Amino acid sequence: MRALWLHHSDDPQASARGDQYLWGGDILVSPVVEKGATSRRLYLPRGDWFDFWTEERVTGGREIDRRVDLATMPLHVRAGALLPFGPVKQYSDEAIEQPLSLVVYPGADGAFTLYEDDGRSFDYRRGEWMGIEMRWQNAQKRLTLQLASGSRMLPPLRREIDVRLAGAKASRRIIFTGQRISQSL
Predict the structure, then answer these.
(1) For 49-97, what is each residue's pLDDT tens digit?
(2) Class of domain 82-184
């Protein structure tokens, strides 16, 4: 959790917000704290943002009203963000068969490093970890994946990743085997 002023210190309205925060640098959380509220007035810092639930693109640098209900807290994702979603696990090292999903929020360049280890030991201290560096080049509409420096491919040695641009219905499956791969989306 990060205060807005940590990433938007040049924006007086963002710096003054005490009822919103960032989850990492890419997700803006706007909690609803009023009983029976049906809408939430919130501030989006400059730049393009996407409503997490509808994937509608919204221009920032202004206040907006967002409809809310008991099941929907307003969340907005910064343009350029890369959000991975894994299948649900019951415990950290549970074997899973489903692919990782990655949603790319276009409109700006972005980067993210996905970190994995065995989930049960301290072997990461001996180099037993994997980092997948993900880079989005917005102008070229290109996603690049490669192993992070100092990491190595962990089993399974073939990772299926379903990649989708925010707002699009269809996804594209990318197979990552540890070699640098670059795909146009």
Answers:
(1) 999 999 999 999 999 999 998 888 999 999 999 999 998 888 877 878 8
(2) mainly beta
pLDDT digits over 111-156, tens only? 999 999 988 899 999 999 999 999 999 999 999 999 999 999 988 8
Q: What are φ and ψ of residue 6, in 5° steps?
A: -65, -35
In the sheet where 57-59 sits, what is the strand order? 21-23, 27-29, 75-78, 48-51, 57-59
pLDDT for 151 equals 94
- Number of helices followed by number of strands (H, E) in the chain: 2, 15
Indicate whether 24 pLDDT > 80: yes
Could you check whether 4-78 and 82-184 share the same CATH topology? yes
Domain 4-78 is of which CATH architecture? Sandwich (2.60)
Do residues 67 and 48 touch, judged by C-beta distance below 8 A? no
CA separation, residue 166 to residues 13, 44, 182 (Å): 27, 18, 19
Sorted by where each begins, the domain ranges of the chain are 4-78, 82-184
Helix (H) or strand (E) holding 57: strand 57-59
Q: Exposed/middle/buried for 5, CB within 10 Å: 0-12, 13-18, 19+?
A: middle
